[in-house]
Amino acid sequence: MGKALIIGAGGVASVVVHKCCQNPDVFEEICIASRTVEKCEALKKKLDGGRTKIQTARVDADNTEEVIQLIKSFGPDVVINVALPYQDLTIMDACLATGVHYLDTANYEPPETAKFEYSWQWAYKKKFEEAGIMAVLGCGFDPGVTGVFSAYALKHYFDEIHTIDIVDANAGDHGYPFATNFNPEINIREITANGRYYENGEWIETPPLSEKKVYDLPEIGPKDIYLLYHEELESLAKNITGIKKIRFWMTFSQNYLTHLKVLENVGMTSIEPIMFEGKEIIPLQFLKAVLPDPASLGPRTKGKTNIGIIAQGTKDGEPKNYYVYNVCDHQECYREVGSQAISYTTGVPAMIGAMLMIKGTWMKPGVYNVEELDPDPFMELLNTKGLPWQEDFSPTLLD
Question: Where is the Saccharopine dehydrogenase-like C-terminal domain (predicted)?
Fold first, then answer.
């Protein structure tokens, strides 16, 4: 039916490639492209021989002209961007130049500052409309499925949603004293930034990880959850009818936070360049190089994740509460695709979004966050493609 160019060769890209190959009726051909072509070749070697034809290519995703030439040579229907968020705009520019649809899993952020917002990508809306092509932003789990969950809740159970609490819990254990479950540079920039939430039309900032609660999550039990800013808050505050308050919570162990604080105190989480032996380096990038590769955590990680939304609002004038979530097992993910659940929960939704675009189910020119699109076909595919969801109509609320 279609062709997908997958840019990136890390843990999430590996899941996307595996899941595309599980759906050859839709993904007849894929091309895996990265600056490190050896990683692409390793993925191809694992999965070659099935009905999905696999190519590989070397590309510098920071170089728009290189991406343009690759798109022209392969001729994809959609580009699935699972490279670094710094590269979103160069890849979007290449899609505009070639008239090809675009999908990513994380919003653009400039390398020189930890600033998470959609303004740069939303500015492309008119250009994509005029070009007759579509861009789907943030189609991982959070952002991604959390937006689809919110749209589904509004469509089926609420007239208005007043409060959304997104809770992202990882009860997995990889056995290392300290490691991050996805790209360390992106992960640590996100966590060490100020927290922020939306309430009554205003954004309220909090010091990093200063607000903590305990929440009892299905299948993984009570966990410490900390308030931080996540990019889907910006789009959901704009797109969900009636919203008055929206927050994002994530679990961290005390061990993780202690290690992070020490690294922060000695300057290893800084993104300000320093001179070292006559060369300019960025401490956080050096730290990334010495930490375990998230793609290597799969065989070591045990336990489960639980990610979902708790919504409060009204239906027919009456108060209504709703909790929808997915529980994912790290070891089951590894048995299926050779990756842990953090990569799995991001890669599967990216494949689903691309599938809906290729099939024409999600297809209209412009730039969209997932909650602006029909949630029903996506929710159906979550159940059949590896991320089944559960509902609770009387959840414990976060005050």
Answer: 140-387
